[in-house]
Amino acid sequence: MATDHKTVADEIADRDPRSFQARWRMRVHRIADQPLWTHPLLRLATALGAALLFALVVSVPLDLTGQLIFSAGSFGAALLLSRTPGRLTTLAMIVLSISASSRYMYWRVTDTVGFTNWLDACFGFGLLLAELYAFLVLLIGYFQTAWPLQRRPVSMPQDVDSWPSVDVFIPTYNEPLEVVKQTVFSAMQMDWPEDRLHVYVLDDGRRDEFRDFCQELGVGYLTRDDNAHAKAGNINAALAVTDSDYVAIFDCDHIPTRSFLQVCMGWFIRDPKLAMLQTPHHFFSPDPFEKNLDTFHVMPNEGELFYGIVQDGNDLWNAAFFCGSCAVIKRAPLLEVGGVAVETVTEDAHTALKLSRRGYNTAYLELPQAAGLATESLSAHVGQRIRWARGMAQICRVDNPLLGPGLKLGQRLCYFNAMLHFFYGLPRLVFLTAPLAYLLFSAHVFQATAAMITAYALPHLAHASITNSRIQGRFRYSFWNEVYESVLAWYIMRPVLVAFINPKLGKFNVTAKGGVIEQSYFDWSIARPYLILLLLNLLGFAVGIGRMVYVGPSSEVFTTLVINMVWTAYNIILTSASLAVASETRQVRSTPRVTAALPAALRFADGKTLVCETDDFSQSGVGLRVPPELRLEPGSHVEVSLFRSDEEGTFPAQVTFSGDGRLGLHFGELSLHQQADLARLTFARADAWIDFWGNRQHDKPLTSLKSVAVIGLRGLGQVATNSLNILRGRREAVSR
């Protein structure tokens, strides 16, 4: 008997056969369901027709009125689409954005570069090259992020005896033992058969206290005779003396949850060709941007876009990157490619590239299963990003993904865009200074009228802004990318260009973690490039005002001045916000606290017990929510119990603060067993980081622009205040 097969149109008709919308959708889907659409010739003809239509949209010349009408209609459609949910709607917005941007770039190349003197040509072609770079990054970025895979965990087999063995590597070099302890405690308590879980501390610092600590806990302790190839060499040395089927790697400050392996390993069982699975790098301490700008848990940090959207998009194309930590790698494929790559200082991404070239699959789970410490200071943050940028430039030279065997087109583009991204230093500096060419030197970088520049450029920028806001809105707010790039541009530009020319230059630098900042201070050394850029833009803006007064509002020059001054004002906001990041705030806690509401109980010296709830916790203390009437003297000794399901841990503590319904406790001297219990009940909880991931309010571009402007005003105020303090100090020194 034949099977009754229903098309999409039939299902729509069954649900609501009378409404106009249903009838219209039914007709559309009946056309789409026709078998002729699967014919190769028709598909080719459709593709050619779409390409010709796109070429027509991009290249047809329009006068000012026509361009304004086209832009208004296109942007109006994008605004309507932005209010409509669904991935297909997102794709439609991407098409509109690409059309507007391609039309702008076509016009730029064909109509605006007829320079008549060397000054105009020098500034003009420099800006055009920067725009072409940004356009290429925009296109490949859409390709990467248009359709994130959103892979979910796969359950492990019921037969626990069939589960593979896993070595857990925790490489360390110069980090303090207190930072590494929590990672070791949590790694030991992962839910995995005890006889198939082997934890190793890989100590390239060869420290006795680490060896003693590992011996007391009963975990592996591995060292080597030298520090060749830094972290990559450390891991490769450990691979040579261990033998489990899989290797889980954690930076020594990245604390895994107990569920890490059960969440990750199911995909290896399902897919025999899977060689590497990466999870997000989540941080429970603020990075310098979040700390110095007071945006921690208020807006996404610099790295969340990569782990929230980009990696998930890479996963669709089988191009997920290994990021050095919070990942599982299958031993056999890793050994097949020679271990962790040592040719570049970004050994992690290069290793994933090698695995992909051999035909192995990689995967990404957008589910935080570990958390670590962010860099404490802006200078350390810049140093870390310099290493990443240098390494990506090295890979681009020695193992360019666009060349060589073994990769599909999607993989090549994803890897290439990751490397291309770190070349933004020079283009960003061009954008931060481009309007000064006209304001200070009267150089015409566009050979076009101000009205035509606005009619073409504004749709390009507006479409890109609202489209990226829709795609990235949970993990990156509008305009903040420009702040991040402005802070780093000067510092990564030279290392990237040098590494691209000579990839053998440069060395691996370890990012310090677990430090403190005793006093607030303004980092004049790191802020010097932003200060120079700010002063240049302020000068350009002042000159522009003078020229506007001189030429009068009826002149074409006046309109051109207005456009360049609006651009300069935006650059002043960005450079001012960059200066605000350089104002380091005080950080006295070496063990940051994590906000969490966990069941707890207090036991007092007289035997009484109070059931309460945690407000936050760290490895050294805990904050409790208690009745407002409870008052305890600072220094009082209590016992605090923490609970998870039917598990309990009790810890001695001392009161550090009491009042307003909150109690601060500092743990007493804890045994290793108690420290392990504390980690199990706090950092190692399976749900420890889920609530912190991607749950903020969705981006609103105008609100984001306002927040960047407010930060910029703060930066100007901080520079003025610190400058006055320096002058006052010098005056007092002279008077003495």
Automatic annotation (TrEMBL):
GO-annotated cellular components: plasma membrane
Residue stretches spanning the membrane: 40-58, 88-106, 118-143, 530-550, 557-582
Main location: membrane
CDD domains the record matches: CESA_CelA_like
All residue ranges annotated as the Glycosyltransferase 2-like domain in the record: 168-335
Topological relation to the membrane, as annotated: Multi-pass membrane protein
UniProt xrefs under InterPro entries: Cell_synth_A, Cellulose_synth, Glyco_trans_2-like, Glycosyltr_2/OpgH_subfam, Nucleotide-diphossugar_trans, PilZ_domain
Sorted UniProt keywords: c-di-GMP, Cell inner membrane, Cell membrane, Cellulose biosynthesis, Glycosyltransferase, Membrane, Transferase, Transmembrane, Transmembrane helix
Compartments it resides in: Cell inner membrane
Matching NCBIfam families: CelA, PRK11498.1
Role of this protein: Catalytic subunit of cellulose synthase. It polymerizes uridine 5'-diphosphate glucose to cellulose.
Protein name: Cellulose synthase catalytic subunit [UDP-forming]
